[in-house]
Amino acid sequence: MENNSSQKVCEQFETINNRIDINKTSSLQTSELFMNQFIQKLQPYHNEIYGTLEPFCDDREQGLMLSLYNQLTNDVIYIWCCEDKVKREIMVVTAKEKTKHNLYMQSDKDVAQYFLKSNFHKAINYSLNQVNKFLDKDLNIKL
User: Fold this and answer.
1) Residue 134 CA to chain centroid, in angstroms?
2) Residue 115: helix, strand or coil by DSSP?
3) Which residues contact 101 (CB under 8 A, 6 or more apart)?
4) How far apart are CA 117 and CA 91, in angstroms?
5) In the 3-class helix/strand/coil scheme, how is 97-113 assigned residue by residue?
6) CA distance 63 to 42
7) What was the pLDDT predicted at 139?
8) Using only C-alpha atoms, what is the Rg of the chain?
9) Parallel, antiparallel, or unpaired: how do β-strands 62-70 and 90-95 relate?
10) What distance in Å separates the CA atoms of residue 137 and residue 129, rounded to the nearest whole number?
11) What is the chain's pLDDT, residue by residue, as a tens digit (143 residues)?
12) What global pTM score does this model have?
């Protein structure tokens, strides 16, 4: 019995030792952290909006795109978040339209907002202000 048990331990160790580590890219991790915090802050809007969260990837950045729909008008606002490959900062793009591949228009990317990764709260506050403008509200939700 002892021999059989030792063999199982060795097999388990070999399985663990030979595993493949798979990690999310830094941009996707940043986007996921941002969106989790942002969606939590959107809870006071639950009567006004609903949304969907989807991935996006262009030639340089990848992250998550949040589509928010006004429940009264069915108007939509899109918010993309990722880590800029060059600046290594949080990039937030907001727009009222997107491409069929979940990407922002170049004109919207040209006015993207950038935030230091240490300033998540500023990126989230900026995005909340965009939602306020979209809904024509002044809920003044801050971190």
Assistant:
1) 19
2) strand
3) 56
4) 10
5) CCCCCCCCCHHHHCCCE
6) 19
7) 46
8) 21
9) unpaired
10) 9
11) 455 666 666 566 566 666 777 788 889 999 999 999 999 999 999 999 999 999 999 878 899 999 999 998 889 999 999 998 888 899 999 999 998 888 888 888 889 999 999 889 999 999 999 999 998 865 444 43
12) 0.79
Phi first, then psi: give them for residue 21, nearest 5 degrees: -85, 125
d(CA 66, CA 68): 6
Q: How far apart are the first and last CA of the chain?
A: 59
Q: Is 78 strand, coil or helix?
A: strand
> Of 95, 86, 21, which is closest to residue 56 (Cα–Cα)?
95
Q: Which amino acid is at 29?
A: Q
C-alpha distances in angstroms, 110 versus 31, 54, 94, 114, 126?
19, 22, 11, 11, 16
